[in-house]
Specification:
By secondary structure, this protein is of the alpha+beta class. It contains four helices and five strands, in the order αβαβααβββ. This is Peptidase M15A C-terminal domain-containing protein.
């Protein structure tokens, strides 16, 4: 299990399914460290809408089958002070996200540390 960073608790990334046998805390440390770098860069709180999803929950919320959320390397985030487009621009300055996935949606941004570049709009 990943350890907390200065501004993020591993529990914020746990699966929301609520099932007894879910490995709720399967978030990758690299994701948390990259998000901490983003947090340091913007200097204002980031809210985690969705982090790790077990396969059951991923299916329930309509995630793609091999979702990076299921691998614990993705988070959907938003920030009260910045628009998703602005937040995504800052994410480009964090190496693990620059060389990872950044998806811009209407009210949130998906970031992941997949190790190769992917960009899209939701
Ligand atoms: Zn679950
Ligand atoms: Zn996502």
């Amino acid at each position: 299990m990943a350890h907390d960073t200065r501004n993020f608790k591993a529990a914020e990334f746990s699966c929301r399914c609520g099932r007894f046998d879910c490995p709720h805390h399967a978030v990758d440390q690299r994701l948390m460290d990259a998000l901490q770098q983003l947090r340091d860069l913007i200097g204002v709180p980031i809210h985690v809408n969705s982090g790790y999803r077990c396969p059951f929950w991923n299916k329930r919320v309509g995630g793609v089958r091999n979702s990076t959320h299921v691998r614990g390397i993705a988070a959907d985030i938003r920030c009260g002070e910045l628009t998703p487009a602005e937040l995504a621009r800052f994410a480009e300055e964090v190496p693990a996200f620059a060389n990872g996935g950044i998806g811009v949606y209407k009210s949130w941004v998906h970031v992941d540390v997949r190790g190769k570049r992917a960009r899209w709009r939701g």
